[in-house]
Structure formats: structure tokens, C-alpha cells
């Protein structure tokens, strides 16, 4: 898997879990639906929407990094289940050339 897509997937999925956890804290701390409770409910809804967007972005990166079409990232709408399904898909990216030497440093070459 491409390291750039792996990094993006980790960021997106990590943000999904963090925002959902924060949303649960906000929702549980909201009192009755008074004026402050209604504001807390709006904040909870905003956190859920942002978490879903982060999950979609992370799943998009995970699908692209594994060699699947980008639209498969819509599995992020299923939440944790979609993330698990994408994580369990086999990697279809072609491997790098086997046995190729690492790139040489910019120093003098022994000839």
C-alpha cells in the first residue's frame, strides 16, 4: 500500500473515532433539552457529521491505497463496519520490483 494513502487513511479513520468519542461525551453531558441542552445537541450533530466526513475521506484513501476504485470509500457511510470491511480487503497494488537495490546516496561512486 502506498505510504501516502496509508497516512491519509490513518488520519481520516483516527479523526472519525476521535470525533465520535467527543460527540458521545457532548451528548451524555447535555442536560434536559433546555437552551443549553439544545446547543449541546447541535454540537453533537455537527461532530457526527464531521466524523462521517472524516470516515469517508479515510475510507477513500484506504480503498485507493489498496488498488480499489475510489467510490468504494463510500463504505465509510456504514461506520465501523465499513472500515472493517475495507481493512480486510486484500491489497491489489502491484509490488515493487523484487531485488532492486535501494537508491544510491548522492556521494562519490566507487568505480
Write a compact overview of the structure shown.
By secondary structure, the protein is mainly α. It has 3 helices and no strands.
What does this structure look like?
The chain is an all-alpha fold and 111 residues long. Helix content is 60%, strand content 0%. The chain has helices at residues 3-29, 35-65, 80-88. The protein is elongated and about 65 Å long. It starts with a helix and ends in a 23-residue tail after the last helix.
How would you summarize the topology of this molecule?
Layout: H1 3-29, H2 35-65, H3 80-88
Helix pairs in contact: 1-2, 2-3
Features:
111 residues; mainly alpha; 3 helices; elongated
Rounded average pLDDT: 83
| Count of separate DSSP helical elements | 3
- Number of domain units: 1
- Content-based structural category: mainly alpha
* Major pleated sheet: none
So what's the overall shape?
Answer: elongated
Weakly predicted, low-confidence segments: none
Q: What is the first-to-last residue Cα distance?
A: 36 Å
Can you count the beta strands? 0
Radius of gyration: 21 Å
- % residues in beta strands: under 5%
Helix content: 55-70%
N-to-C order of helices and strands: HHH
